[in-house]
Structure formats: C-alpha cells, structure tokens
Design goal:
about 425 residues; alpha/beta; Peroxisomal Thiolase, Chain A, domain 1; 2 domains; two-stranded antiparallel sheet; 15 strands; globular
Length: about 425
C-alpha cells in the first residue's frame, strides 16, 4: 500500500488565516473568541462565537462569482488556495485525473438558507436567486475547490457532524493508500454562526453563556466549563503519496499513518458510557498505524468544553492508553479552548494542528484550564505550550449521531 503524507496546510480560523500565523497564535495561547458580530444577538442566551475576523473572500474568489456560494465555500476556497501554495503543488494534465477533493461539511449554507427564507417571505418565490441551491448544498465546497484547482479525480462531501473534516482526511488518505489517487486536497469547512445555528445549539443547552468573558468561555476539562462555543472556518490539507512527494522534493509535515472510525449506536447527542465508540475508533487507528499506545506522544482531543463530553473522552483516553496516559506521559490538549468548536471543519483543522506539532516539536496548550475537573485527570498541557519531540500524534473527532473518527499522524523518521 502507498504511504500518505501531508505536504500542504491552509487554515482559515478565528485565530488567523494562513499556516504559520494561526500556529503562532495557538502556541501563544491566544483566544479568537469574542462577541458575535454577524447578527443582532438581542434575546439570545449565548452571544459569543469564534468568528473569522476581517474575512476578504475576494483574495481567493472573483467578486462576480461570490453570488454562487455561501460563506463556508468561501472559507474552503481560501484554505485550499493556501494549502496548494504551501505545498508548491503543480499538476500536469495527465496527473489531474488522479487528484481529487474531499471536504467535510456539517451543516452547509445556513446563512444562504436563512436569507432565502427572508426573501421568499417578503418578496415571493420569483425573487429567489437561481444560485440558492448551489450556495446551500454541502458538496459545493469540494466542487468549487475541484474547479478552482482542476482536480478531476473523486470529489465529494462527507457529512458526519463534528467528525466531517476528520473523516474527509481519513477517506482521502485511503484513496491514495489503495493506489486509486496520487494527490488529494482534503479537509473541512463550516460557517454556522447564524441565528438558526446559535439558537438551535442554545436550545439544547449546549453553548457556554459566559458572554461577559468570551476569551475564557471555552474551558475544556475545567471544573467550571458550561458548554462549547461555536466557531467557523476551514482547514484544508494537501495529501500525496510518499513516492510522489519524494520525487518532487516536497516538504513533508507528517505521515497519515492510521485511521479509525466507529459508531456509538447509542444516542443522538450523548456519547456512549466510557465513550466506548471512541475507544474503538482510537484502537482501530492505532492498529492501522501498527503502533502501540505508548508510542503516541500527543493527542489533540475532541475536548469541546461540555460537562459530559470532556469526562467521557478522558475516560476513553485512560482506557485506551492506560498508564501511559494516567501517569502523564501522554500529553493531551484541546485547541477548541482558543478557537471554539468549528463543527464540520474542526477535525480537519485539528489534524493540521497535529501535523504542525510533529513538524515543529511543540504542543499547543489547553487555555482557561484553571480548576481541573477531578474526573478529567490526564495531562492537558494547561495554559502554556510545551516543546517535545512527537513521534506520533492522534486527533479525535466525535459527532452527533454517535459518529467517531481518530487519525494517527507520524513523523517520517519514526
């Protein structure tokens, strides 16, 4: 089977746009969470989010084409352009048929859907834009990226709630491993900081209401956490076969060495006891990577800052990694403490963070971890980044419906 490596990373996040700038902010423990600016939050109980600041889509999209797409697709196009440039990726005409694009999206074009409903109500169906459906549907992130970069291989969207971006990376890696593609542009995108998005999550009592202190609102594994903070953005990776990347002398961040996926088959929103489904996904990824649990040095946790989820993930990590985790040899952090929860984009952004951690030898912190929850007793790299040689890293992504994904990334020399 072909080995799969990451040669390009593009990030559009609440803590910055690019590759190095978001990474610098994360290592510095900077929060990108603040008051919602995209709509009037009067009457909402949760009024904070991780928004992408100063977004200028025309840096990557012709102004006349913006009418074709919603914000999540703009993010995907920006992140993909950054990733392709970061990889120095150039494709010949012959190579395009073996280069594809998978982008995971959880909810798709909520802003366009909400605007269309307003137009329909106020002005009638004849005033609805012909671009409405292409703007809303989730697969147009992958479709638009494929068109922008002339990727003629497989192109589709994976929608698995908050695991979408991670599943997209895992499935893209599988296409290369099986020899069915040589290059895949893969990741996730989401833009649901909208009235419907926020109202829907707050109706479930899932969101933090620490509106007066937004930068400290997302506090995974802390005793005083009160829910997650919605975020938006995109993370896109360029994946290549190791043989192709080596031939062209590409810079390699890390290898995608393991992929595991499972279902809790338990509840629409709550994890199974002891997060048994997550345990299966993690063990599957370790087996796929052909490594023992104690070979993993860092886990980027799903770590959303919810009362139940953080405890169950901690228990699952302890069950899978044993004394390696409970004795503090495994370092775990949740970068959602700084960006909020990017939903369908989260798994891709956090996989990119694992790749950067391996390449840079540094683990970003879990900020706002002031009063550790006694039921979350692992080393969560509280508040300050730490340097470490990372042989293998794991990214965990879990979603509503009981969907679980774990990815193992490895340094090439390990």
């Amino acid at each position: 089977m072909e080995r799969v490596v990451i040669t390009g990373i593009g990030l559009v996040t609440p803590v910055g746009v690019g590759t190095r700038e978001p990474w610098r902010a994360l290592l510095g423990g900077e929060s990108g969470i603040g008051p919602i600016s995209r709509f009037d939050t009067k009457g909402f109980r949760a009024r904070i989010a991780g928004e992408v600041k100063g977004w200028e889509p025309t840096r990557w999209v012709e102004k006349k084409r913006l009418k074709e797409m919603d914000r999540f697709t703009e993010f995907a196009l920006g992140a993909a352009a950054l990733a392709v440039a970061d990889a120095g990726l150039e494709l010949t005409e012959a190579e395009r048929a073996r280069a594809g694009c998978f982008i995971g999206v959880g909810l798709g074009g909520l802003p366009a859907l909400e605007r269309t409903k307003e137009t329909l109500t106020a002005k009638g169906p004849e005033k609805v834009s012909p671009y409405t459906i292409p703007a809303i549907i989730s697969n147009l992130a992958a479709g638009q990226v494929s068109m922008a970069h002339h990727l003629e291989g497989p192109s589709y969207c994976i929608t698995s709630a908050c695991s979408s971006g991670a599943h997209a990376v895992g499935e893209a890696a599988q296409w290369i491993r099986l020899g069915k593609a040589d290059v895949m542009v893969a990741g996730g995108a989401e833009a649901t900081v909208t009235p419907v998005g926020i109202a829907g999550f707050e109706a479930m009592y899932a969101l933090s209401r620490r509106n007066d202190d937004p930068q400290r609102a997302s506090r995974p594994f802390d005793r005083d956490r009160d829910g997650f903070v919605c975020g938006e953005g995109s993370g896109i990776l360029v994946l290549e076969s190791l043989s192709r990347a080596s031939r062209r002398g590409a810079r390699i961040y890390a290898e995608v060495s393991g992929y595991g996926a499972s279902s809790d088959a338990h509840h629409i929103t709550q994890p199974a006891p002891e997060h048994r489904g997550a345990q299966r996904a993690m063990r599957m990824a370790l087996e796929d990577a052909k490594i023992a649990p104690d070979a993993v040095d860092y886990v980027n946790a799903h770590g959303t800052s919810t009362p139940v989820g953080d405890v169950e993930e901690s228990r699952a990590l302890a069950a899978v990694f044993g004394a390696h985790a409970t004795d503090g040899k495994l370092w775990v952090s949740s970068t959602k403490s700084m960006m909020g929860h990017l939903l369908g984009a989260a798994g891709a952004v956090e996989t990119a963070i694992c790749a950067l951690a391996i390449a840079d030898g540094c683990v970003p912190p879990t900020i706002n971890l002031v009063h550790p929850d006694p039921e979350c007793s692992l080393d969560y790299v509280a508040n300050t980044a730490r340097r470490r040689t990372i042989r293998h890293a794991m990214n965990n992504s879990f979603g509503f419906g009981g969907t679980n994904c774990a990815l193992v990334l490895s340094g090439l020399g390990t």
